[in-house]
Amino acid sequence: MRILITNDDGIHAPGLKSIASVAAEFGEAIIVAPDRERSACAHAMTMREPLRVNEVKYQAAPVKAFEVNGLPVDCVNVGLTIGWPDGCDLVLSGINNGPNLGFDVTYSGTVAGAMEGAINGIRSIGVSMAPLSTEKPIDYEIGAIWLRENWDDLVHLDLPPLVFLNVNVPNNPPKGTRLVGMGQRVYKDRVEMREDPWGRPYYWQGGVAVLDGAQPNTDIQAVRDGFTSVTPISLDWTDHEVLKRLQKSFE
Ligand code: MN
User: d(Cα 121, Cα 131) in Å, to the nearest integer?
Assistant: First the structure.
């Protein structure tokens, strides 16, 4: 099995080492990852600057590895050009340093890496560690174990074209796996105003995720209940029910 690995936390990220170690057990893997952290870059791509690619020695796993001065989408496309010019069987993105639940999907560079794989017609999976508190450091080994145990299912699940998987693993050994939809994760206090030493205001964007109320059958609820969530996400963003209704009202 030919595997392309990317992430948005950069080539030195511990989560990349974990996912590469697992991938190398199941096939021939090539890492093409950003040379620095690029979290929350979504599906952006670099178009006005050249992409520079360096092969790097990767100690953590028996894989070829390249760093790119670009974003996850750039890395997937560079990887398909220099790493797997005849195509590959799987694109893995992660393991991300934090959850990609609910609306996070729209900001996530990790998810965008998988999205780009799906656009290229390749089975693609984004994997994130999803601690819901900062109590203990992220344990990527939990994600690696889950990935290894569920590898066969993940690569054989019957997926239509242009659908990829978004996986969130809790930061404690999961109670199991739930196939679920995308929940609603909204942030409060999204923008915080501070002052620089000269009294001029500046702004930090971040905020605290609000996870009020039960959200049955969602990624958020699954992780909150201690399960790994697996969500199929479609590149077809059309709301087909609304489309039908609108078409009727225009008749
Ligand atoms: Mn990240």
Answer: 31
Residue reference for tokens 């508190």: 133
C-alpha torsion sign, points 233, 140, 43, 123: negative
**For residue 140, how far is its CA from the centre of ligand 1 (angstroms)?**
13
- 9 Cα: distance to centroid of ligand 1 (angstroms): 4
Judge whether residue 189 has pLDDT over 90: no
- DSSP label at residue 48: S
- Domain span at residue 226 reads 2-183+215-250
pTM for the model stands at 0.96
* Dist. CA 81 → ligand 1 center (Å): 24
Nearest to 35 by CA among 77, 86, 70: 70
What is the whole-number distance in angstroms between the Cα of residue 110 and the centre of ligand 1? 6
Q: How far is the CA of 220 from the centre of ligand 1 (A)?
A: 18
Domain annotation covers residue 207: no
pLDDT in tens, 79-106: 999 999 999 999 999 999 999 999 999 9
If one counts the domains in the chain, the total is 1
Q: How much distance in Å is there from the Cα of 96 to the middle of ligand 1?
A: 5
> Residue 79 gets which letter from DSSP?
I
7 C-alpha to center of ligand 1: Å?
7
